[in-house]
Every structure is written in C-alpha cells, then in structure tokens.
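INFO  loader      accepted 1 record
INFO  loader      residues=82
INFO  predictor   begin
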Amino acid sequence: MNLTGQSLKFENGQWVAEIGSFTGDRREMQRLRKRNQQLEEENNLLRLKVDILLDMLSETTAESHLMEKELEELKSHTRRRK
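INFO  predictor   done
INFO  writer      dumping tokens
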C-alpha cells in the first residue's frame, strides 16, 4: 500500500514501511512515531475504560436480577398469607 509517498506492507500483524520507500525527513518520521505512540496509549486507556464499564454493568445487572427475585418471593409470600 502506498500512503503519502511511503510504501507500507502488513507483516506479522503490523504495518511496516518498506525499506527506502520513505521520502520524508527524519523529523516527520519522529513526529509520526510519537503520534502513533500517543494513539496507542489512548487506545489502551479506552479499552480499560470499556472493561471497567462492562464490569460495572455486569454487577448492576446481577444485583437487579437478585432484587427482582427477592421481590417476586415477597409477592408470593404475601399472596399465600391472604
């Protein structure tokens, strides 16, 4: 794949620049690497937040089911008394 004058290939699960294909300067390469690192860190943080939210959702759902079951038992108990 060619992107902004740079040839890339997908190798071992990662995009790698083909040797000699980069026509930009060294500063641009450093900037791109830094930006890539920032995006990877942001992605990791977002994954962590999603995991935490899923855990919270699971806990809340389990509590809700327990409360519903308890409520049904109380209703059943009340009906038997009448």
